[in-house]
Protein 1
Amino acid sequence: MRLALLLVTVAVVAFALAKMSPVDPVNAYLGAEIARVGPEQRAHIASKWGLDQPAQVQFSRWASNLLAGDLGYSMTYNAPVQEVLATRFKTSLPLLGLAWLLSGILGFALGVTAGARPGTWIDRIIRLYSYVLASAPTFWLAILLLIVFSVGLRWTPVCCAGPIGVPPQDVTLLQSVHHLVLPLIALTVLGVAQIALHTRAKMVEIMQSDYALYARAQGASQMEIALRHGARNAALPALTVLFASLGELFGGSVLAEQVFAYPGLGSATVEAGIRGDVPLLLALALFLTCFVFIGNSIADLLYRVVDPRLHGKTVR
């Protein structure tokens, strides 16, 4: 029920914002050919797409088609929206999934390491690294990686998800991984900082707790206390930040995919926004909403696994 209400709200707000945009979908579709098209042809295109109808009629028609399982037709890619989403998601999934997983593992490991020995040189290095990257824009880091590794050293490709001129079905696994490396590094490095800082803060609190003091009095070393008592208790805030970062991860992928010309959901979002492709924009907004909602629901379930005290309680 909550998901349904959320989807309706997101759809209404996204549609209203798209209609308030100064981008004319017909002009964006025609592009350079606009000078060769007369008013009658423009009116015919607008009529064919239903853009000559009032906004409420357009939204009602889109909502009716959505309930019937039809997400509409993308004027940007000249293909059904379902097909565009499936193709782009297939390309973005390895990038988003690996970046999310690696940033979680690395961020948690760095946070535990720094929090176990607060005030030491390794804690200062990890904090400095996290503060710098937490404030660094995604596109800046992506451009920096591109200049150094693709243009300067020529170790990685400049763009795309495969060699230029090779059909997607003919791209080998090795070529796909080669093109994935830089976008993956850009997204992973940025995601590590937030998780490391939150985990460190929780670890410092745990290492100063009474049960840590009791364990220390029994002869347990700092590392034993960190691993046996700290890591498990610090996992809860780390999970919260990790699943809450799904939306931020998608936002970062929009910028990273633009810099690397990676044909995923992020670049499709930018193209849909520039061209005023309302059906594709709405579908992407609903998809992202479901994506984040499911991620948060999974986090709620994992809380009970990590912390047995939450069994039978509602996690907020």
Protein 2
Amino acid sequence: MQAPGYGKLAFDAPAPGSYRLPALGPAADGHVLRSDGSPARLHELMGDRLTVLSFIYTRCPDPNGCPLATHVLKRLRREVSERDALAGKVRFLTLSFDPAWDTPQVMRTYAAQVAPEPQGEAGTPWFFLTSASREALTPILEAYDQTVIESVDEHGASLGSYSHILRVYLIDRRQRLRNIYNVGFLHPDILAADLLTLLSEEKG
């Protein structure tokens, strides 16, 4: 059964600005690698835009796992570009939790497949990131409470897959978590309403 994020929302998304999204805590910083291999920090990449952050691994075989996150962000990116109120105010970050396989080159290839549109600042940049090592990644996963368990065989060798819970994070311009979406709640219409609600909040 496909997750709601693949189809039309079964109910009307709440009117933007008609509700509040309390801050859930700070959005953690951490050392990452861009898809060109250059180092960066998450806070640097978030910059002064509203940010949607997802954790994935490119070999994920579960359609309601990482592929769902990427699919929803693709739809949301298109919607953001079509709404004047959101254009130029949103940024996407996708960070792999499989740095051994998802090298910068792999992330660059993945980005070319799922988001071939220009990444210019005038649009909606979508950065595909990885880490230099498991040691660099672990503090980030822990700070975001993103559970990831590597599947191994009876000898402890990696099977190339992970058990994980899908989580996508909405982060405001003050780098605070404002919402966390799971598989049953992740939908571009809900995300768009939440983004507009944060912008409405900024206007006072």
